[in-house]
Amino acid sequence: MEEMAPAAVRDHSLVYAPRIQDLLAREEKVFRIDPTTVGVSDCRLLAEIVAARPVLSTERSVYKPAAGADIPHDSATRTIRALGQDVMAGIRTPPPPARGLSGAWPYAPTSYLRRWLFSADPLPVSLLSKRGITRSDTLSRIVDRAVTVWPGSEAEGRSTALAELIRGASDPLERRQAIAMYRRATATLCDGVAALAGNALWLLRQQRAPEQAPERASERAEERPADLTAALWETLRLLPPAWMLWRSGGEAYTELHPEIRPEDEVALFPLLMHRHPDYWSDPLEFRPERWAGVADPERTPAFMPFGFDGARCWAKHLVVPLAERLLTVAFDHGLVIRTPRQDAPVPLRSLLSVRFEAAAGA
Fold it and tell me: Measured between alpha carbons, how far is 197 from 321 in angstroms, rounded to an integer?
């Protein structure tokens, strides 16, 4: 695991992993990261790169090939629809006890969301999204084989639409791919929402902290802001969980910028673009009010929380509503951030997420 940067390097009382800190210190909008990788945070060039060619299946986290074959388009579409049905049904049901939000964030809310949305699925399908299973390649393979042979009995309409795609598969390949899609879809959604909610909690807390003594701030229940949706959009600007997009091979991009060579990989950085003073006023300040009255935040120039047209996150329409629902539960049950320090680590991971300890009431 990469060591964290010294505590003296801070941004909104955060301590970034050294590689992230190095990126944040760069002033160029196009720069070489290593001999084969170019980083880009220029708004215009990002749009041109995304438009230069369709995104490859291997560049997608959820729809990359599974079981030795590409995911068919109709299968991907069914997965999106099924997940949307499951989320909408889940947030209409009473949430689990709020004490499930106590512990290390973002892990506690990730497990909480999985219990909330997918606990109705029969064994062994429900094991597909258990964090203790997914962290072990051996256990994951065992569960996958078990579900392939026996996806569970009829659950009298209680199982999720995603689980029904596994049960309704017409052949072994389709079932194996449905299993992979179940695991990827549930993990991507729950991990992403938990990261967004945790980032928002920390930024909201730090927004109030100067008015309180540090020891009192760590013991004080978090309070819901007047406009929680705006706070989430501002969090997506300042601490976007999807902080980097990867494009394999630069041959399609060589005419777009002289720094990009045919053999180069290209890393796109919304995290840097969202913080650049050419695009934003007071770019490093957490200001939810900047989104007041904005009907469609994704049309804001230099804002890419879910990607560009043609390569947008498949679950973008679910993320903010679910994060808002999760935070509402946390606020309503007196969630308290408990940490002995006034800063928090942001490790180098695929999802940008602040790490802290929290406790909630029953």
Answer: 11
